[in-house]
Amino acid sequence: KKAKGDPKAGQEEESHTCCGCRFPLLFALLQLALGTSVTVLGFLMAGISSSLLVRDTPYWAGIIVCLVSLVGFLMLCISYQPDEKTCGQFTVKLMYFLLSALGLVACVLAVAFATHHYLQMTKFTCDTVLESCQCKLDTVDPLGRTFTYQDAVDCGSLTSMLNLYLLLQMALNLVAALVCLLTCFVMWKHRYQVFYVGVRFHPLTAAAEGQKQQV
């Protein structure tokens, strides 16, 4: 074990922190905050109109990111073990890596769906018909597709609010995707050996130092 006043131990500890937080904790906190925001915003969008599709209310992406953050917090509870006892921590770290990749895919899909819907709404021409908002891309074409938003008293307020929510979803999911990508990059780069909590053992280092002292 390293002494408490060993400067090398302090440098090693600082190399695994950012702004005073260990990297798993920092990533998990960001994922939890972003996932919660995306989930809440998705349910708010679903409350605007009952006819909105699931892909247009990406609370599912937020739930996935929240689950990823819980695995990150679980990884913090596992102390570093010697190489012959790493089955549990390897499983959790591999799960965290794979779920972060899944969260990345989900957030990218959410950004794509929100962007597509937002670009469509910028070209809509909408009218209020019997407590519903009916929108068309081309008012001249009688066979053009009509998009109907139920439970809408005022088309103007619905479209403006929905546009704002879509922009927020694009921004939040984009940031969440970047956080998940960075998590995967750091985990892959250090081969699951950088992150640890609790007491870390250095049997090989201690043995080498003991041999040097004997010589």
Write the layout of secondary structure elements.
Layout: H1 7-15, E1 17-18, E2 21-22, H2 23-48, H3 59-76, H4 87-121, E3 125-128, E4 132-136, E5 146-150, H5 155-189, H6 203-214
Antiparallel strand pairs: 1-2, 3-4, 4-5
Helix pairs in contact: 2-3, 2-5, 3-4, 4-5
Concise synopsis of the structure shown:
The protein has helices at residues 7-15, 23-48, 59-76, 87-121, 155-189, 203-214, and strands at 17-18, 21-22, 125-128, 132-136, 146-150. The chain is mainly alpha-helical and 215 residues long. The radius of gyration is 25 Å and the shape is elongated.
Poorly predicted runs: 1-21, 192-205
The general outline is elongated
Number of helices: 6
Order of helices and strands: HEEHHHEEEHH
How much is the radius of gyration in Å? 25 Å
Structural class: mainly alpha
Strand order of the largest sheet: 3-4-5
- The average pLDDT score comes to 77
Strand content of the residues, in percent? 5-15%
Number of strands: 5
Instruction: Tell me about the largest β-sheet.
Output: 3 strands, antiparallel
Please report the distance between the alpha carbons of the first and last residues: 20 Å
Protein name: Sarcospan
Organism: Manacus vitellinus
Membrane topology: Multi-pass membrane protein
Keywords: Membrane, Transmembrane, Transmembrane helix
